[in-house]
Structure of PDZ domain-containing protein:
Amino acid sequence: MTVVPQNISTTKVTVSFKLAPEDVGKPDILKIDDNLLIRHISKNSFYNGLIMSDKVLKVNDVSGNAAKCTAELMKGGKCNVEVMRRNGVTPLTSEKIFPANQAPKKGHAYFILTLEKPAKQNATGVGVQIIVVKKRGIVSQVEFNTMGFSWFGRGDSIVSINGNAIPTTGDPDVWMREQITKVLTGNKLTLLIERPVEANVALDFKRYLDSIAPVMITTHMASDVRNIAREASNMHTIVLRKIKAPSILASDIKKPKKSADKTNETREISISTASTEMKICSDVEDDDDLRPVVNKSHAAGSSSDDDAGCFDDE
């Protein structure tokens, strides 16, 4: 599991960061790995502008080396930090953002993700599957080329929506689905997202997620085929929502009209069942011209000496 989901784009931002006074001079307050990814920030400095999973590009005038960037940040002064950050997220500013009786977990990144439906986009779903486990809505699958594909990655966990924690009573899965789909009707949602970033924590979480929601292996197809199918599905859904089938109990229900033609030129036989009606027409004008049908057996070993066909004139 990657620190930043592979389907999520990143953007370059410059933020202001300063260590909390109680963290200055202490070891292991902030860790940057060899890939310049921030893997750890102390609790005291957790809300000061950086996000675990940010990739550090430059600290003031220092760049290109994890040790030098860390040393510059550890001085305790105000720093201008240039980072590559997951698109669409903002850092936490206060511990009060967490729901009651909840706190940050060690080895996890936390950030605010804002969801808003793009203008002029017709969609019937967000395109994500979410499993609610232990007060977390875990994103288990994201469909390609949907709104959710640009917001979520597999392994993201939703802690709260618009400041509301996931309920422990009733059906939390239904609550989660109802809240997320509000974005389809133009509502703006603010989500608190949790994602493991420390290597050991991320590996353990990946194993756990694979055990409860294995990755579904599907047949790959061309992107244009997927787009056509998705657009067709959306179109049919929109149309079907507007269709109202008449009730069979309605007083104005349309009933099939019986033929008013009673002339001798048309002779009709009606064969009715519970759901169908068939009409068989005869072109014989005189009933006397109708000839009787003779039933004869064609079974093997028939004792009949008559080799004629089934009709009496054969």
Observations:
- The two ends are 82 Å apart (CA to CA).
- Residues 308-314 have pLDDT under 50 and may be disordered.
